[in-house]
Amino acid sequence: MSGIMLAMNLSGCSFFVKKDSGNTDIQSVRQESENADKTVMKRSKSEEKEAEEILEICSKTYAKAEKEGKLDDLEMIRDLIKELGEKGFTAVDSENQVNMTEYEKLIQFSEKAEAKKNGRMTVVEVAKGGSCIIRNMETHDGIVNMIRSYCIYENGKLKQSSEDIYRTESWEYTEDGHLMFSGRLAFEGSYEVTRNEIMEYMAYRVLSLDETCRELNRKYILPIGYERNNMFLTDWSEEEFAELDFYDMFDLFYQENHTANGEFTFGNAMGTSAVYLISKEKFEPVIKSKFKISSEVLQSKTVYYPCEEVYEYKPRGLEETEYPEYPYPEVIGYVNNDDGTLTLKVQAVFPYRGVSKAYIHEVTVRDTKDGGIQYVGNRIIEPINNPEIRWHVPRLTRTEWEELYGDN
């Protein structure tokens, strides 16, 4: 979700309804949906008992993890999900790192929703930091309603922090084993911010994913992701770096190694039209730590002043700000190559757009003798075919930058 997190994504400024042929009064739809949800969807006594059991299981695990300083530990989450599964619960983690337990129940529930049959079930989402979400789902006549209870661990207890009741506005179980759904949170409870416009966009990986694929994703792909860089959005290789933006790469990898020093970070000089001259000794090692590239090629792909031996660098400005919703990567396959490199097949899951496969690409990587990672190339296998699925904003060209800031 990163899916992810979770595979969970929240946006505080978006709302959508299913399209119809007439002029829909959105406010009326909101009120009608909210009233319908509150009258139709109620938690049964058996579901209340389930919730008590879930809270007890999670509380014990979180209490132990807190003492050991492991509330953010992946293995703790993995063990907790396993225990919930052994108790018969459908459980998943909020960041899409652990296979869902009792996933067959969710598939059957989705089949009932598609067939317009009646059905109910409970899903538990476990998160880092000692929180979880309990979802009680109900389907009838092809409609899916749910009660979403957000629980947080505080002062040795796991207790409900808020409760949201809503009718899903989209619901799809995809061919590749993802459940995508969304809905407007019509919540019961108090929050420090106004939430009556919040939409929830969800993606569950229902079918199990090979654990090696998950490990490879955590090691090679998730640290890069799809935010403010085009490493995985364009074709490039060590022989031809093409449109790969090395300034975005500098942003990414400089912060990785200099977290305490924010002189060249996004936001530090955003909107100030700042221009830095970074020495060759400082700029090149950041890039060469991740790419097999000569100084000459790097200089040709950037603005370099040979007499001073410095690189010109401009932080991203307001005009280069991206949309706040991003897809997250899933490694779905891999091949060990004869030359010692590794090629990963990756698909971009985009909850905000309700698609489990925004596009597919292959990433080739190389482990170095000193324990580092070199990125060897990227190739788009299945491109983005929906013009509405956009999030990346390239940096301004030199001409565009001069037009905006040249007089400053």
UniProtKB/TrEMBL annotation:
Q: Which InterPro entries match?
A: DUF6070
A Pfam family matched in the record: DUF6070
**What name does UniProt use for this protein?**
Short-chain isoprenyl diphosphate synthase
